[in-house]
Amino acid sequence: NVEPRSVPVFPWHSLVPFLAPTQSD
Amino acid sequence: APSSAPSSAPSLPPYFIKGSIIQLADGELKRVEDLKTEDFIQSAEISSELKIDSSTVERIDGSHTSNFAIVQFSVGEHRAQVSVEVLLEYPFFVFGQGWSSCCPDRTTQLLELPCTKLSVGDVCISLTLKNLR
């Protein structure tokens, strides 16, 4: 028996580094 | 038993491997190697919390002996200075160009992800939080 493998789906934003600029005020 | 596994072999996230399925904000599915600048921009426009910022590469310090590079960015309109330490093969998405890393040969070898050389002056896609009122 061959079980269907679930293919992982990743959200688009996980590919982008989260670079939060520091707020000066 | 204490884990004594060497920590010198960190792995990249699985979603950078060629063929990985990425879901855009509108639900569309694309392979990671097929993503375009517009996909990120349009997804951010739909998002209620995230916005795209431009991060310009100002400096890259790296060595093949450590496998790591420190990339210094100038982020957003305020040009805030942000440094990140990443694996040499870690891919960033450059506006209008696509995936780029400090060592594209390693990226292609390890991930099979088509990649160009990340250089000073490149403008990468990054995210910040939208100002919520």
What labels describe this entry?
heterodimer; A: mainly beta; B: 133 residues; three-stranded mixed sheet; 9 strands; 14% helix; globular; disordered N terminus
Describe it for me?
- The complex is a heterodimer of chains A (25) and B (133).
- Chain A is mostly beta strands.
- Chain A has one strand at residues 9-11.
- Chain B has 133 residues and is mostly beta strands.
- Chain B is 14% helix and 38% strand.
- Chain B contains two helices and nine strands, in the order E-E-H-E-E-E-E-E-H-E-E.
- In chain B, the strands form three sheets. Chain B has a four-stranded antiparallel β-sheet. In chain B, strands 6-7-8 form a three-stranded mixed β-sheet, with no helix packed on it.
- In chain B, strand 6 and strand 7 (98-101) form a beta hairpin.
- The longest helix of chain B has 10 residues, at 37-46.
- Chain B is globular, with a radius of gyration of 16 Å.
- The N and C termini of chain B lie far apart (50 Å).
- Classes of the chains: A mainly beta (25), B mainly beta (133).
| Biggest sheet features of chain A | none
The chain-level mean pLDDT of chain A equals: 79
SSE succession of chain B = EEHEEEEEHEE
Shape annotation of chain A: rod-shaped
How many helices of chain B? The count is 2
Protein structure class of chain B? mainly beta
Question: Over the alpha carbons, how many angstroms does the gyration radius of chain A reach?
Answer: 18 Å
Quaternary structure state of the chains depicted: heterodimer
